[in-house]
Specification:
The protein is an alpha/beta fold and 398 residues long. 39% of the residues lie in helices and 13% in strands. The model has no long low-confidence stretch (mean pLDDT 97).
Length: 398
């Protein structure tokens, strides 16, 4: 088997339009989002307007990171100290981290073999815990049945906040991810769908919620300079009773995001071409189980996940090593110790230990791989063939 020689962490270079936008801000010296000339709309405010329009939301707040967006969303929604927040047991550490940062306690919900939140376990835990909040992690770009989920949210009077770090541009039955509850939280970190190194976006249709979030983000009394904010009168009471927890996006990051947002739909199609190439290579591979992609889901295939059910820890490590020897970098979510961004609930020692047998079973054989747009479709076919080859070799020696 011919090794793959591509780089799994190399993103596409930012093009001349992005470079020109960045240079314009640097030449102006006006990097802070509120450092604008009279009557001028800052780049951060322009981005808020543009992303609100893309998302189909009334309001948008640009902030420092997706994790920060989640934390202030919980605070702006009224989370109390020590209050339980339901969330998926399969997610990345910034999700329980945001709950902890907002003063809450994560209450983990089992997942299914399709890598989405288990709606039966969610309903059960919502009824028995008294939790008021669900921070739904659309982890690695997988959407649950959002009609069923929102029914459960309504029946249990939950406040739904969506973590859409991996589902920017995704939809369920034509409705954008991030629009099913009170708020959607998005990331513009380098490995997400828009790249500003770090950055976050918070969207909502609720004026009081967004006003609190804007004050929390560190607007001082400059909230009228935001591009997609509620009217000034909404802030009258909120501005004096809400703390400043500075986490603003600057104009430089906003400027380099605007040209990328304009071509996001094209990027989504390119990601999905690459996803399908790997998916097709793995569809008939020995021992490989792929998550189901429902017809209602419009996904963004910037990464791919698959399982090798029944695999022991030793064989999982051998499988990762065999792929790496052929140039393919896989992450395994069943490891006892966290590796880079990959961790599971047993590694989050600030979260109360919880019994999650189904999640543990699924994660024990779950592998994950990025699909950067620097790879061609043919590269992705090659990668898929390597994974299938390693799976067959593993089966022959198991």
């Amino acid at each position: 088997m011919k090794p793959f020689t591509g780089n799994f962490t190399q993103q596409e270079p930012l093009d001349d339009a992005v470079i020109a936008a960045a240079t314009g801000i640097l030449r102006s010296g006006r990097l802070h989002r509120y450092n604008s000339a009279p009557g001028e709309l800052s780049k951060a405010s322009e981005l808020e307007q543009a992303y609100a329009a893309y998302q189909g939301a009334r309001y948008c707040l640009a902030c420092a990171s997706g994790g920060y967006a989640m934390a202030i969303a919980l605070r702006a929604a009224g989370l109390g100290q020590g209050e339980a927040v339901l969330t998926n047991a399969f997610t990345l550490a910034p999700v329980p981290g945001a709950i902890a940062a907002a003063g809450g306690k994560p209450l983990l919900v089992e997942i299914t073999e399709d890598l989405v939140i288990d709606l039966e376990d969610l309903d059960r835990k919502a009824k028995t815990s008294g939790a008021r909040f669900l921070l739904l992690s659309n982890m690695r770009g997988h959407l649950a049945d959002m009609e069923r989920l929102t029914d459960i949210v309504r029946q249990n009077n939950l406040i739904l906040i969506e973590d859409c770090a991996h589902t920017m541009g995704a939809a369920w039955n034509g409705r954008k991810s991030g629009s099913f509850g009170l708020a959607g939280c998005f990331s513009t970190q380098t490995y997400k769908h828009l790249n500003s190194g770090e950055g976050g976006l918070l969207t909502s249709d609720d004026p009081e919620f967004v006003a609190r979030a804007i004050i929390l983000s560190g607007s001082y009394m400059l909230y009228e300079r935001h591009g997609a904010a509620p009217p000034a009168d909404v802030f009258e009471r909120i501005r004096l009773e809400t703390p400043n927890m500075s986490g603003r996006m600057d104009n430089l990051r906003a400027a380099i995001l605007l040209p990328q947002l304009a071509r996001l739909e094209d990027s989504i199609e390119r990601w999905n071409d690459r996803y399908r190439a790997v998916e097709q290579a793995l569809a008939g591979a020995e021992g490989v189980a792929l998550p189901r992609r429902p017809e209602a889901e419009r996904y963004v295939g910037s990464s791919i996940q698959f399982r090798l059910p029944g695999l022991s820890a030793a064989l999982a490590e051998a499988f990762v090593a065999a792929n790496k020897a052929l140039g393919v970098e896989l992450k395994w979510f069943g490891a006892a110790d966290p590796v880079a961004f990959t961790s599971n609930h047993r590694s989050w020692r600030y979260v109360d230990p919880q019994l999650l047998p189904e999640t543990d079973r699924i994660l024990s054989s779950l592998f994950d791989m990025r699909l950067p747009l620097t790879f061609s479709v043919e590269d992705c076919r090659h990668i898929g063939a390597i994974i299938a080859h390693c799976a067959a070799e593993l089966g022959a020696h198991a």
